[in-house]
Amino acid sequence: MKVLEKKISVIIPVYNAEKYISETLDSIIKQSYKNREIILVENGSKDRSSDIIQEYEEKYQEIHMIKGVGKGPGSARNRGMEFASGEYIIFVDSDDYLPDTDIFDQYVHAAEQTDADIVVSNYARLWDGKLLSTVKTQSFALSGPLSEDFCFQGFFSVGTLSYVWGKLYRRSFLEKNQITFTDITYAEDKLFNMQCYVCEAKYIFLQEQGYVYRKNKESISWSYHPDSTANWFKIANTIKLWIQKNNKDMDMYGGLVQYTLFFASFFDGKMEYIKHKNSLWAVRKVLKRYGQEPLGRECFLELSKGKKLSELKQYLWRFIIKGFAEGMKHQWYMLLAGGIKLLIDMKVDERLSDTGFRE
């Protein structure tokens, strides 16, 4: 079968996207690779999103709008996958766009040449009108998928592997391993990709910048939810069970669980600090919740040993994680709260992000 005969199914969850959906669709329509279908899952928008999509649907045969169940982007993507008929799947968010008109062609060519399950491109972030480049995938891709550094950088410190956008997925791989999106409040794409990783997906990395992610303060990913801690523990428990279900070595894949709760506790602590106007007691309260949960205690005890941390290339992260885990093990919650305040005030957390300073 020729490369150009392989069909791509583009799946786009849509909710109140009237500001950006035209730019998103135009960037897909302009792709040089033409064997594709574009499935827009309309998820109960209150604006003109449906009307705009209908106009495109009438004009382009490849565009199809279906109704979602109104439970968030994860369930919408699942709905889209049910209708998808392509050998490959690409997920696009309704407020983002593709800057390279040849990226679909490059995705498929790379997948066909290497038999990859997931093809990953680099991306940029659009913050308040400024296009910022991000840390390139080479920073971890060269380490090899079974290395601790690949796992840590890919899913956490750099984070490129956490997102479902900016990638091409082989549909047969997802179906064979029964990988779908879990019904959780947010970060469902992170869990989805970690499940792919545990199932030993074969990755290929492109040097091209294939995606632009827009900072949209109205989106779910930019909202802090009161059930955040419960959501992260559900993710951590789910991936732990997924590792066991697939008979994988916990020593090899356990970092997915441990690093998830480390970053989640820091994130929730930071958001509580901001929400409660720089209150250290609010940070202490959320850290205590993480420290008292059985899985939390287990993870921080393991991280405090530093056994796998020595394999990380980023020395600063080794120091931060080891120190944080020691504090959680000994229940030094107020001391850790002060440390989080210091990191936030000095913007160290932004320096360590994939884009650096954002303002």
Question: Top keywords for this entry?
Answer:
359 residues, 16 helices, 8-stranded mixed sheet, 15% strand, 48% helix, alpha/beta
Write a structural description.
The mean pLDDT is about 90. It is globular and about 60 Å long. The N and C termini lie far apart (about 50 Å). Strand 2 (about 35-40), helix 2 and strand 3 (about 65) form a beta-alpha-beta unit. The longest helix has 21 residues, at about 255-275. It has helices at about 20-30, 50-60, 75-85, 105-115, 140, 150-155, 170-175, 190-200, 230-245, 250-255, 255-275, 280-290, 295-305, 315-330, 335-345, 350; strands at about 10-15, 35-40, 65, 90, 120-125, 130-135, 165-170, 205-215. Strands 1, 2, 3, 4, 5, 6, 7 and 8 form an 8-stranded mixed β-sheet that branches. Helix 9 (about 230-245) runs antiparallel to helix 11 (about 255-275) and helix 12 packs across helix 15. The protein has about 350 residues and is of the alpha/beta class.
